[in-house]
Amino acid sequence: MSTQEQSASTATRETHSPDVVVVGAGTAGCYAAATLAREGYDAVLVERKSEEEAGHIACGDALKGASAFPDSIPKSQIEPAFTNTDVDHGRFEIPQEDTVLEIPVPGELAVIDRWEYGRRIIEGAIEAGVEIHYDTVVRDVIQNDDGRVTGVEAISKGQPRRYEAAFVVDAAGSLSVLQDYTDFSESTFDTNVNYTHFCSAYREVVHVEEPVDWHDALVFKPTERAAGYLWYFPRTETEINAGLGFQMTEEPMELVEDLKRDLENRAEFQGAEVEDKLGAALPTRRPYDSAVHPGYVAVGDAAGHVNPTTGGGIAGAAYAGKYAAEAIVDGLEDGDHGEAVLWEYNERVMDHFGARYAALDVYNILSTAVDVDDLMGLLAAMPGEKLAEALYEGSASFGPKLAAESLYKSRGHWGTIWNLYQTKRRADALLAHYENYPDHPAGLEHWQRRRDELMDAVYETTGADPKY
Q1: Do 354 and 203 touch, CB atoms closer than 8 A?
Q2: Are the beta carbons of 26 and 56 closer than 8 angstroms?
Q3: What is the residue-level pLDDT of the chain in tens, covering all 468 positions?
Q4: Three-point CA angle 176, 181, 185, nearest 5°
């Protein structure tokens, strides 16, 4: 760009100077911004979509942990988006074993209209005092000579905008471009991230003529290959969110055909109307070891805050936004922008759900190294309540009688059982280590060394290729 062009660009550029700029009006971003606004700080939320499209994302629409949300956006604000609160269990269809497992799911469940929910959290943020700038795409991150993030450069409908702020909250979703723009070399921020740690999700909203028999269940089914699973989540008795998730290492169109074939072969979907087809990426990995950098915090999908076995992340993202905002408030009050003042955010995430998600990721790693038919046969033999514990808590215990019954039912899969048992021990050891997450940035490197030793044992036990 010529000097004359640069001068013209600078002359027409809008400059905003809030206390905090939050990038992305999803769950984590809205709750972070609302928390800051309710504490009396000037928070600007920038969103790349238009006002009409904001909040519209690809999602399974299932919400676990529906009973509790941070009060910066009251639950009453979002409850009208809860379209089905009668779901209470998972239904696992395993065609390889001609088996259907009905599995209780702990905690309050709901299926939501995700776009309506998205609109309502944005409204909740506005009511809390947040200023929202739609149609605004971030093009760069501003850093000072010490590496501290001091704002972002953006463009809105051709108009350059500069946001100068004490803190930036990265709520820009999976594989956030803000992290491509930022130099994290002088901080603990986790840069051990690549596309293989993520999956693609695709979903359609399907309207059927007659109520489905499983309107009180979340239906899961493995794809024809081990790369992913299909889901059918009933928003209502006749409106179904039908989708699939698959690792980014797989060819997307081939797996979307799996969903198409399954829909065509299910009697309940004959004559159905399909609308609102949409896709997205989401993390299927452990949470970031550290999601803070001077002047910068990543939250939600941008920090790996998703259950890697189910893809669920709404409630966790809401709390991540709250925890990040509260750490930022401490920094604003003290005039401190460093990692240490933000570190409690990392600790609270690990304590609330991060440690559990890291343990669950071990089972994802195992799934890449075992035969899918053996794995499905084993799941068919497991007691439903224990499978639920494994999927949602990261660990499950077996008494002697229960173990003996499971062994009898699963004869022919004992090699896989032994592998799973050993993997469970590795996951338990990793969970215990994450529960001792360091209380200061200086302790992270030592903690990581021990964690990596535990992960080496996971790879040795499972036979999987290293993931990180």
Answers
A1: no
A2: no
A3: 443 334 445 558 899 999 999 999 999 999 999 999 999 999 999 999 999 999 999 899 999 877 789 999 999 999 999 999 999 998 988 887 788 888 887 778 899 999 999 999 999 999 999 999 999 999 999 999 999 999 999 999 999 999 999 999 999 999 999 999 999 999 999 999 999 999 888 999 999 999 999 999 999 998 876 567 899 999 999 999 999 988 777 666 677 888 899 999 999 999 999 989 999 999 999 999 999 999 999 999 999 999 998 888 999 999 999 999 999 999 999 999 999 999 999 999 999 999 999 999 998 898 888 766 666 665 666 555 555 555 555 555 545 544 555 555 555 554 566 677 788 899 999 999 999 999 999 999 999 999 999 999 999 999 999 999
A4: 105
Between CA 245 and CA 200 the distance in angstroms is 6
Number of Cβ atoms within 10 Å of the Cβ of 109: 23
Neighbouring residues of 316: CB distance < 8 A, sequence distance ≥ 6:
65, 300, 305, 306, 307, 352, 353, 357
From CA 89, how far away is CA 79, in angstroms rounded?
20
Answer for the pair 246, 271: CB distance below 8 angstroms, yes or no.
Answer: no
Q: How many CB atoms lie within 10 A of CB 292?
A: 27
How far is 308 from 396, CA to CA, in rounded Å? 17
Strand partners, 164: 151
The whole-angstrom separation of Cα 414 and Cα 102 is 23
| Residues 6+ positions from 40 with CB-CB distance below 8 Å | none
Residue 163 and residue 299: Cα distance in Å, rounded? 19
Q: Kindly state the helix (H) or strand (E) to which residue 249 belongs, with its residue range.
A: none
- CA dist 321 and 124 (Å) reads 14
Count the helix, strand and coil residues of the chain and give each as a percent rounded to the nearest 5: 45, 25, 35
* 417 touches 386 (CB < 8 A): no
Question: Torsion angle of alpha carbons 351, 357, 358, 359, nearest 10°?
Answer: 100
Instruction: Please check whether residue 335 is in contact with residue 341, taking contact to mean a CB–CB distance below 8 angstroms.
Output: no
Query: Which amino acid is residue 346, in one-letter code?
Result: N
**DSSP letter assigned to residue 172:** -
Smallest CA-to-CA distance from 419 within 452, 375, 364, 454 is with: 375
- Which of 211, 215, 205 is CA-nearest to residue 277? 205
CA-to-CA distance for 406 and 410, rounded, in angstroms? 6
Sign of the Cα pseudo-torsion (259, 262, 264, 269, in order): negative
